[in-house]
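User: Teach me something about this protein's shape.
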Amino acid sequence: MRLAYADPPYPGQSHLYRDHPDYGGEVDHAELAGRLWAYDGWVLHTSSPALGVVLAAVESARPAELPSARVLAWVKPFAAFKANIPVAYAWEPVLVRPARPAVVSPRSVSRDWLAEPITLGRGLAGAKPAAVCRWLFDVLGADPADTLDDLYPGTGAVAAAWDDWRGRAATLGDQLTIDGELAAVSVAAEMDCDAVAAENRDDQDQGEGDGRD
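Assistant: First, the predicted structure itself:
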């Protein structure tokens, strides 16, 4: 499946990226939302002050036959605390359109929130921690065979996290296959033992019956 990961400059914050090579001013979130819905699954980061505007743009672009995107929360135990802001902005909404239905698996039982500190020293404001990316890949229902388009590459952190996640998921998938095969052998052995025990009980009952006759 085709997946998209969008971590654009948040509404009203594009000035923070003026020195970046691909700076293009304010992002047209209506246009971006239209592009996202063309994918099988996608992620869109934004800020809590901009959530209403971004959510409206996403919902307006949503094809009628598809369900609404889900809003998740990235909670920041360590965040940027700014002067004259008495209530810190310590969480960010993330809009997600899963590519596949969520399943409970040994790989992941995800929550609709994640507590993870912000990154520092990445050279670009707002670079996402690898743990946040991996959490969102799980929520997406991603598969290692999927393709992921990072629409706003920035530092390359998302692509690096995707490569890491694919390696982990593939390794764990192999292990689950091995575990499943071993479990099947174990179940078959238990069934054989149960069959032998049942046969022995039948023989014993028959012998006791012959003694009473």
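Now, about its shape. The helical segments are 29-36, 51-61, 130-140, 157-212. DSSP finds four helices and six strands in the chain. If you'd like, I can walk through any region in more detail.
User: That's plenty for now, thanks!
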